[in-house]
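Researcher: For the record, we're logging two predictions in this thread. I'll number them. Prediction 1 follows.
Model: Prediction 1, sequence and structure:
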Amino acid sequence: MPPAPELAQALQDLARSYRIRDKGALCVALVVTRHAKKHGLPLDPASLLTENRGQVKGLGKGAVQAILADYAITRTLAEEGGRTSRGSIANMERCVSFLNACHQRGVADVDEIEAWWIARVKDYFASKPFVLRHDVAKSLRAIIRDLLAQAQTRERESPGATCAGTMLQHLVGARLTLALGAQVQTHGASVADTPSGRDADFLIHDTAIHSTTAPGEALMRKCAANLDAGLRPVLVTVEKGVPVAEGLAEQKGIADRIDVFEAGQFIAASVYDLGRFAPGGRRQALEDLIAAYNTIVDACETDPGLRIQLAAC
């Protein structure tokens, strides 16, 4: 449950006043709150300092990740757990003062306070772009799969999010845009096909292209409707979705009439083609793909955290 309105407002004021929103400050808030859960309130700020009084006691990657693990969060918030962040001691003292004040007023529910900071950690992760690491030692298919895996991890940590499906749709859109240009119409991932009058995510001549991370019966019915309308359905899905889609198509009696592609292969093949199979060309094609993807996200989505940053390894 969310914290009581008075406590939630106090937490918002604290975070806003002292800019407790970056990874180092959030690490401090989590460690101090967990200390309060273990040892009770009020706290003595001196007890949270190391012997040389130069760092916050217990502040490190292991401690922070252990707290996050309690909430099924596996991503690393900070490699040093905020230990080397400037201002960590000052932030610790502010958090202690806040908790003690709440305790004095009788509103210090440390479970709710910790959950509130966890929600801010999720906001922090969600605000960061995904990272495509151009590791030349890896296959292009593996690089694309890693990118989609990042989106799937974010979904697991933020129930209700649909990052992976959105990313897949817009990567497919970017790939088609690079190949075909302005004739490709792109839409927000939340825009359903039927109400908008579309036969698929993308309709290119007589080809109806569907993208999904979880193929199901409804999609097979849509593919069958495509066939009845004289269209050629193409399905792009994640690795685990390929056998599922093929099995459902077999049950529907249309297995030999639709093409099912694994997303990594579908996109990697395009990168090789656009890059003319040359090392420099592949890098440029990846840059062009991500630029086209980000353009689509900017135009069709409201969450900047869906953007992708290209990084070299």
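Researcher: Logged. Prediction 2.
Model: Prediction 2, sequence and structure:
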Amino acid sequence: MVRKFILIAAVSIVGIGAERLIGAQEAGTPKSLEERVLILEKKWEGSPETGDETRAVVTIGKDGFAIKAADGSFQLRIGGTIQSDYRAYLSDVNQTGVNQFLLRRVRPILEGTVNRIVDFRLVPDFGGGAAVIQDAYLDVKALPGLKLRSGKFKPYVGLEQLQSDSFLAFVERGLPSDLVPQRSVGAQLIEDLWKGAVNLAAGVFDGTTNSANVDGDTGDEKEYVGRIWVQPFKNTFWEALQQFGLGISGTSGKRLGTLTTANLPTYKTEGQESFFGYNSTTFANGKRSRISPQGYWYTGPFGLLGEYVASSQEVTNVAATRTSTKLTDTAWQITASYVITGENATYKGVEPRRGVDEHGPGAWEIAARYSELRTDPNSFSLYADPTKSASRAQSWTAGVNWYLTSRLKAVANYENVRFAQGGAGNTDRPREQAILSRFQVVF
């Protein structure tokens, strides 16, 4: 079923060709001193009439530092994201969580355009004391509304995972993001139809385990990804429904592992504490697929986001009598938010009417989320580590966001996670309670 869905998404990506209009200009002989001066001024400004299109224009504004050619054929934007966090764990019976300050993300961002038809994005990350390439890709704009993306980036699968880190309603993503890929290397066709009312995506990737960020592959098998996203009222006069969207995404592939490279995931709470993992004698050995219905609705100051993910993987244990067993894990979440200062809520964050830099209060938002992850009941028969793993996690999170300006944001969250089954002696793992906070700068 997942393969059929991905094939339909791929076939649906059809672009409509467009002709380029090329205007010809006549060159005349200047007949006066004024005309000669005008031509020199246009040449200095990089006017296309003189053939000089190389003059650079430098801008510094809310979108960062940018350099571009006068005709727009080449552009370079320099920006960045810094997120400084503090985590405090309450009633930490097992003392697994460490109360600490940390740099969650430190990302310089380079974006640009080459010859008008190729956009690029390069995002290294130095957060957590490690250097990682998060994004490194090219967008080839083949036709209006259609582009081919190639490199390392987020496959179009999880709804909250696709949301920019700086726009999240909470410090960390919910439990469904444990079951989708973070970033992988591959190529993907992306098409917008009817002024963005429909977005289609289909791609092929090296493939990655759930919640992983990889730069390469460990085998010849590839993973196929497809997504259909629809905002049926985006271009209508019904303002309350313009930001209502529904979609479905899926992946299909094959993943093979070994005892030394299992190619299996570890699941984490919002507090970034591991609560589920496989034992050392289990490894991936067969088909892997994911399916995720998803949607959101933003109207005025109110926002609602929800998604469901089912992830299946065939695994093998060296002690098993069967060649492989299919295990299916599921997760879902629902998030509600409200901007109490009245600004509009959107999937791309909140823009304050008057920030503190303008002697205003900024924008204040409250948010609440429930998310749940259930592992396959057969996992504990042989494959999962019962001394370290829980079979279910249920998380309640409440938060307050203060948008000081469009580029500065402060976040405070309270997280409460209840676990069921698993742990030493097959008893319930102690509840996790944590305070998560963040100060964020984006430019």
